[in-house]
Amino acid sequence: MPDYQSYAQGSPLEVKVISKRFGLPNSASIDVFLAHEGYQALVKALKMTPEEVINEVKNSGLRGRGGAGFNTGMKWSFVPRQSPKPKYVVCNADESEPATCKDRPLMEYDPHQLIEGIIIAGYAIGSHQGYIYIRGEYRYLMEILDRAIAEAYQRGYLGKNILGSGFDFDLATHTGAGAYECGEETALLNSLEGLRGYPRVKPPFPAVVGLYGCPTVVNNVETLSNVPAILLMGAEAYAKLGTPKNGGTRLFCLSGHINRPGVYELPMGFPLRRMIEEVGGGLRGGKKLKAVIPGGSSCPVLSADQIDVPMDFDSLAKIGSMLGSGGVVVIDEDTCMVKLAWRIMKFYAHESCGWCIPCREGTAWLQALLARFHSGGGLPQDPDTALDASYNMLGKTLCPLGDAAALPMISILKKFHHEFEEHLKLGKCPFEKNGTGAF
Ligand SMILES: Cc1cc2nc3c(=O)[nH]c(=O)nc-3n(C[C@H](O)[C@H](O)[C@H](O)COP(=O)(O)O)c2cc1C
After folding, report:
1. pLDDT in tens, 30-49
2. At what angle do helices 417-426 and 337-351 cross, to 10 degrees?
3. Which architecture, in CATH terms, is 18-240?
4. Which terminus of the chain is less hemmed in, N or C, by CB atoms within 10 Å?
5. Helix (H/G/I), strand (E/B), else coil: 102
6. CA-CA distance, 420 to 385, in Å (whole number)?
7. pLDDT by residue (tens digit) across 210-225?
């Protein structure tokens, strides 16, 4: 197992709420967890009514850390608690968005924090069964989670009549096979049911018709890991850590051409410029900044003059991008943006599940165009054609994978149009001395 230092070199600017136990010896064990406030939030929650728990989470301003940023308490309140059907909590541990690597340390170093969050979510929505759907490549984490789940059963935090409250809750892990699409909540539910990981039509949303047709809350690992802290510190104190309507902290995965890459827990709304310069120690080799991917590869790319922005959902939306899954990629002046677009599109073409034609054909077609264009075979009309094709994918598919491919493409075509022009003028990539820059 990699040690904690391989994830983060740490920064004095961090505010550690959900990563505070990272780095403690044997932090994944239940004894260490119990010695550091573990399962205290569950004790508190079980003395509250489910409605009170939901309101506390709603008022904390916690928004989904999986990408879309929907208010978590609000999502829980959509579950029809009076329905006679069983209800489910599904933890999305697919962590498949490129540049995102924060659910991994949460499961590796503090699995009980996640388990506690899931049990509280179950209590809040009236569920007695939870699943952690984990990507195939994270098999070693499944062993850590299974061990932690077994410990929680032994100590009475899972199973029948939890802590004498009369509340029953069971939890199991389930592995995927490593498909990006299976991180999308409805494709995930299909995969969990043993079906092919194709997305479902929404509405109905999973909160009403989810796993096995029953009301289901799907939440990201980081989202659920925040729930114990919210109950312990109170909604108001948690909300105050961040910006209005964007409560708490966020695990940012800082990568790319940066001196100190790593996973850092910073308050929601932390300025991007300070994240790059102070937390990340600036660009490698003193290079100039060209662009930033602010929240995983599906977000519109920011240009260097857009980094004076608070890193929260609403501020990034205002400048036409997204906070997404917290994967911040710093890109230096030597990077070819055409090649970057090609690399991103290659991923989406590979990962498109093929169910919706605009996504299946659009991603494959765009990646072929970009490969040809980057290697010197570009046509003057290609950038316009690529823009047109991207707009024809946007909002035209059952799940947002088509959007995830189109949005970065559109932003690169618009903000870095001059790089496409230079490729055309030179008849080759201006950033690469030799070859076509194949990956
Ligand atoms: C193609 C695609 C892949 C996704 N992958 C993930 C993922 O790996 N992990 C995740 O938590 N959410 C992922 N999502 C978002 C989920 O559909 C869903 O919004 C999320 O799990 C809800 O949890 P949250 O409200 O806690 O963020 C993905 C969405 C799409 C469209």
Report:
1. 999 999 999 999 999 999 99
2. 100
3. 3-Layer(aba) Sandwich (3.40)
4. C
5. coil
6. 13
7. 999 999 999 999 999 9
Q: How is residue 116 written in tokens? A: 């506690």
Instruction: Report the pLDDT value the prediction gives residue 6, as an integer from 0 to 100.
Output: 58
With a cut of 80, say whether residue 436 has pLDDT above it: no
Rounded CA separation 144/140 (Å): 7
CB-side neighbour CA atoms (13 Å) of 432 = 18
CB 217 within 8 A of CB 120: no
Distance, in Å, from the CA atom of 24 to the CA atom of 421, rounded to the nearest integer, reads: 52
pLDDT for residue 4: 63
Phi, psi of 69 (to 5 degrees): 70, 35
Question: Which has the higher per-residue pLDDT, 433 or 253?
Answer: 253
Q: Could you report the per-residue pLDDT of 230-263, keeping only the tens digit for each?
A: 999 999 999 999 999 999 999 999 999 999 999 9
Map tokens 């509340």 to a residue: 167
pTM for the full predicted model: 0.96
Whether the Cβ atoms of residue 308 and residue 272 lie closer than 8 Å to each other: yes
Distance 405 CA to ligand 1 centre (A): 15
Ligand 1 center to residue 359 CA distance, Å? 18
Q: Which CATH number applies to 337-434?
A: 1.20.1440.230
> In the CATH hierarchy, which fold is given to the domain comprising 249-332?
Ubiquitin-like (UB roll) (3.10.20)
Which residue owns the Cα nearest ligand 1 atom 12? 66
Question: What span, in angstroms and rounded, lies between the C-alpha atoms of 307 and 272?
Answer: 6
Pocket around ligand 1: residues whose beta carbon is below 6 Å from it? Answer: 64-68, 70, 92, 94-97, 180-181, 183-185, 218-220, 223, 399-401, 404
Residue 91 near residue 114 (C-beta atoms within 8 A): yes
How far is Cα of residue 314 from the mean position of the Cα atoms in its chain?
Answer: 16
Could you state, in order of their start, the residue ranges of all structural domains in the chain? 18-240, 249-332, 337-434
